[in-house]
Amino acid sequence: MDDCDPATAIESHYDALTDRWHEFVDAPARAHVLWSTVVDLLPDLEGARVLDAGCGNGNYLFQMMFGAPCKIQGKQ
Q1: Greatest Cα-to-Cα distance within the chain, rounded to the nearest angstrom
Q2: pLDDT at residue 59, as a whole number
Q3: 30 and 22 in contact (C-beta within 8 Å)?
Q4: Taking Cα atoms as reference points, which of 63, 58, 57 lies closest to residue 32?
Q5: What does the DSSP 8-state code read for residue 67?
Q6: DSSP secondary-structure letter at 73?
Q7: In degrees rounded to 5, what are phi and psi of residue 5?
Q8: Fewer C-beta neighbours within 10 Å, C or N terminus of the chain?
Q9: Residue spans per domain, the chain
Q10: Taking the model in full, what pTM does it have?
């Protein structure tokens, strides 16, 4: 068993996932399913300030621009 603490194990897992995240969101069928799920959870973005923390390749930022936020920013 690995001796690293849980926080380090989780960080390592997500660091590894970020290298492959585009494989999940770039496939058209998957991107459509993922975005349609996310957009249903979002409030109206008209005039909003949006921060996408952990934005990956920015796919959701691009999609949110159609909601007309006044300012949108992503940080990976």
Answers
A1: 50
A2: 78
A3: no
A4: 63
A5: G
A6: E
A7: -75, 160
A8: N
A9: 6-75
A10: 0.54
